[in-house]
Amino acid sequence: MESMMVIPTWQLSFLFGVFTWIVGSSMFNVTQKIRYFVQPWVSRRVISGTPTVLQIQKYEHGLLDAFFSGLSCVVSVPFYTGFLPLLFWSGHGKLARQMTLLMAFCDYSGNCIKDVVSAPRPKSPPVRILTATKDEKENALEYGLPSSHTLNTICLSGYLLHYIFSCYENIDAFYEVAAITFVCLFVGLIGLGKIYLGMHSLIDILGGLILGLMILAFWLHVHEYIDNFVILGKNVTSFWIALSFLLLFAYPTPQHPTPSFEFHTAFTGVALGIVTGVQQTYYQFHHENVPRVFTPDLRITAFVGRILIGIPTILLVKFCSKALAKWILPITASALGIPVRSSSYVTALTGSSAVKKSNEVKQTGGYLQKMFFRWQESYDVDTGIRVLQYAGLAWSVVDLVPSLFSQINL
């Protein structure tokens, strides 16, 4: 059990550093100053790269449309959200929690840069933009630099390779080269596909590639320290709650509203739920000796049973978490005298012209850092609801559902 009496000095220093950054960046308008210098340069590169996009789109074909659209879905956030629970339930707990936290870090870093720079996507027309899914339509509302798909793919596939090579040290050199070649080809196809679909220009892809390599290199240096802290550290839950709260404030205001802040809040909630759940149940369900799929201790039939039980359960928890948050947060805000509104979740709190406008883009004025520095008529309660909703979902993946598995011998 965590000690709530002794808080390590480094935790206080780290949280104070984040808070200081929030205050300082707001006081000195850091976002606007960075945008002033960077945005024109990136915008010129987007415009000058339009002929390259059009040249690639000359090869338009229905099969290529389907191939690149499908490939884009495979590396989308909803795909990872559905895939990561399976990693936890397959017995690869360390890989699953590391990829979840890495995904949250990539999402935060990439979306911050998107909204700081606020650089446009390729102009349509003349560029043809193909959005085959609702997720892609939402992504098209974000700014372009860097490409999140490229960033996420290079980080997660790179970390997966590192994990495999670490676990199986005697892999033949031929297979290592083949695996690295496959990942490079996959990343290249993702980048090419985003240009072909008209979603990004070449500068966006290069930005995602460079940022992804930088984040991956950084993560490979710190991932063991982070994992040891999550499973063995002191004051983990309290620290992560405070960090998650501050990260909601430590987010830039874009030039125009985008859905990027929503994606950030969702993955902040996911990371919070995973960390709190794993920290409490590591020795029960997530240690290194748990049964792994395709072994006699966890056969494929049992794993399928886990999926059939686990997926409906976490979806039910997500629904219930959202319902409880929609009820509790407005009541709490009212009791504390905090004026709130809702962009979409709480019907009774919607209705103003500002909120109606926000519904069109799924977010306006939800950048919580403003709460510290200027008076607002009301605050968007949807942000808190979203965090709690996804925190509940993630917690159920690593705590509630494994408890069910142990009760029914799965």
UniProtKB/TrEMBL annotation:
It is a multi-pass membrane protein. One of its GO terms (cellular component) is endoplasmic reticulum membrane. Belongs to the type 2 lipid phosphate phosphatase family. This is Phosphatidic acid phosphatase type 2/haloperoxidase domain-containing protein. The keyword rRNA-binding does not apply. It comes from the Eukaryota. GO terms for molecular function: sphingosine-1-phosphate phosphatase activity. CDD domains: PAP2_SPPase1 (cd03388). Keywords: Endoplasmic reticulum, Hydrolase, Membrane, Transmembrane, Transmembrane helix.
